[in-house]
Amino acid sequence: MSESVPGPAPEVFAPHKAPVSPPQASEEVEFVQLLTPEGERVEHPDFTFDLDDEAVKGFYRDMVLVRRIDSEATALQRQGELGLWASLLGQEAAQIGSGRALNKRDMVFPTYREHGVAWCQGVNPLNLLGLFRGVDQGAWDPKDNNFHLYTIVIGAQTLHATGYAMGQQRDHAIGDADNGEATIAYFGDGASSQGDVNEAFIWASVFNAPVVFFCQNNQWAISEPIDRQTRIPLYQRAAGFGFPGVRVDGNDVLATYAVTQQALRRAREGSGPTLIEAYTYRMGAHTTSDDPTKYRLSEDLEHWKLKDPIARVHAYLTRHAGLDHDYFDEVDAEADKVAAELRAGCLALPEPELTDFFQHVYVEETPQLAEQREQFAVYAASFSADSEGEG
Amino acid sequence: MTKITLGKAINAGLRVAMEKDPKVVVMGEDIGKLGGVFRVTEGLQKDFGEDRVIDTPLAESGIIGTAVGLALRGYRPVCEIQFDGFVFPAYDQIINQVAKMHYRSMGKIRMPVVIRIPYGGGIGAVEHHSESPETLFAHVPGLKVISCGDPVDAYWMIQQAIESDDPIVFFEPKRRYHEKAELDESVPPSLPLHQAKVLREGTDATLLCYGPMVKTCLQAAEAAVEDGRNLEVIDLRTIAPFDLATIFASVRKTRRAVVVHEAPYSFGPGSEIAARVTEECFYHLEAPVLRVTGYDTPYPPSRMEDDYLPDLDRVLDGVDRVMGY
Ligand SMILES: Cc1ncc(C[n+]2csc(CCOP(=O)(O)OP(=O)(O)O)c2C)c(N)n1
Q1: How close is the Cα of A119 to the center of ligand 1, in Å?
Q2: What dotted CATH number matches B197-324?
Q3: Residues B250 and B234 sit within 8 Å (Cβ to Cβ)
Q4: Where is the Transketolase-like pyrimidine-binding domain (chain B) (predicted)?
Q5: pLDDT in tens, B159-173
């Protein structure tokens, strides 16, 4: 073999132009849906939503609050208070539905957009801002709320989740659908292409680990549409790895709850992993540094706005649970309050101390690092000494 | 002659390389319609088509592993890794496959692969977006590692890298993407790819730098004039292989050297340079070779990066120390 082997003419090299296309419009998409975009309940043979309207009210409140937290954080970024923000706009139902299906002892491995799941787990939203403001890289203790640190390297956490689930299995924390433990890993459609994610599927499968893989297919990985990641619906991949996969309407909070609850119960009772593909849409930019007008059509966004996850619950609660303005106003007022607290808290986040970045590199600090910290402190202090001398 | 930014210069260089050789293909995440997250590949897909400017799945090991296959088939892939911290899923492919193929095949296979990595800090990013992992590649036999410090070099070095039959990791100083300079495409490059450039002649000490630190060191040299110091500034341009001849000649003249880089202090490129200079120029040296670098910590949250990164003051402090012997 040699480098001089002639290749085909460049124009022949077009493997991705073969005439197969994955389903594009959601109309063609088969998924589990229990609440239509119009706010009507529908039946599904395999999944039922078994909570009452009080619970639906709670989901509504959750979604409104996290949307408000999200828009406040976006505003804070625009005002220069955060370096970056990854918005969850449009993905509230996927996150609240799945997040509310978790039991206290289940463990969550998020990526960097799971603000709604963090909310369900009781993580203070303010703690999420530190990473994006640049004062820390995750100020919460994952053990406090069973919510691991955000993971920015795409897909890495799916393996951590699988290993954690293997630990739960070894510790005999499974075997009971209600009281056992499970793990859930969140990731995006883009992440499904990573080796790590595929390795996680294999490990979870062969060790029958109690892990739920929750993929939010928001149709985009920055500028790349879903058909640059897969030729078949993502949930169908599970079959090839040897566990069930299910696609759910990711904008339907009742359905994401029902589907996730069933998958978690399966994991807790010891029946192994499930892949859930929550079919949804990223309504905003990928992050505040992204400009989606470069790569996607505004019609798509308009189309998806009709499927808004919050509007349909609003419609349901108005029409079928007899709620009037008062309830919605109350929730809005609460959202305003949460947002105001978030803003004030963000502005009050303490700036790191001068030598903070030397902390926690090791449990037992090395002499070399201690010396560097010392030298840095002396060097930094020399400036204030100078200015005092001059002033 | 036009003023051009470093980012646009790489874009222009890629364009020339693609026009010259139909076997050059550019591949990476978001490089097509979006033009890359830093817009370095902007417009290329529109002009060269989706077969030559390939938006890849989100899989770095896949990007480099398939580039190996394309290279085996006679193509010259130019791969973009979106950010420094995301190269590691591909690290195995790079160090075990790309770097060793020529050696393993006893010279029968060539790997003309270029791996472009926007690198370094100073842009206020979140974690994994500001790393300087050049040593991790420079230490691997079979790879060549380069970085550009200004738009003119960027324009020519990307073309020279693509023409090279050896695999090259090209570290692009992302915080300098918007720096501008005059570029005259009709003037051929003044230096071959692996030669260092004396940017400023001086007599008192030599500043050795590359990539994002080139500008910082030039500024430091200007500022040092006020202290009556005349510093020589060398842009290494190439990290593996180092251009030792240029470094030695300068240090023999100035007798003092400070190496400046963003990567952590220990086991960084500065360590290697200091060792080589000490071995070769021992009797010329008036002071040990000093290093002004990042610290031996992970890259910190962005509110602390100004303290972590070598800046003008820290470079001048290094100069003070090296002059103090
Ligand atoms: C290993 C790795 N490669 C590249 C990136 C840069 N990057 C950040 S987010 C992103 C797209 C992720 O898409 P997806 O997995 O669909 O999740 P989404 O952001 O849409 O929720 C990319 C390419 C990264 N963070 N990690």
Answers
A1: 22
A2: 3.40.50.920
A3: yes
A4: 4-179
A5: 999 999 999 999 999
